[in-house]
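Good day; I would like, with your permission, to put a structural problem before you. What I wish to show you is a protein chain and, alongside it, a tokenised description of its three-dimensional fold. I would ask you to consider whether the tokens describe a fold that such a sequence might reasonably adopt. You will find the record immediately after this paragraph:
***
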Amino acid sequence: MPSVFDEQRSWALHDRVALRPESFGALAYHYGTRRLSFLKHPALVRVVEALGEHESAAAACDAAGIPADQRAAIAVALGTLASTGMIVERTAS
């Protein structure tokens, strides 16, 4: 069973992942693992793009204007992206 995604932690798009905008959201391609992921909602794309600029995933959701009723779905999607290495937890520098 996958662990619950922690929205209070700092996350960022992996440095070997590129996002390509699409009409449905975006494609995420990991150049290291050659994994391709479909980000099927523009709101998720906004959050993923904002992760590296904010202190937490929750703050990135706030900045992207994600309403409370969509937070759980976004957290599940972010958890999947984390488990596949598309996003990574940032450590203090």
Summary: The radius of gyration is 12 Å. The first strand starts at residue 11 and ends at 13. Residues 33 and 65 are 31 Å apart (CA to CA).
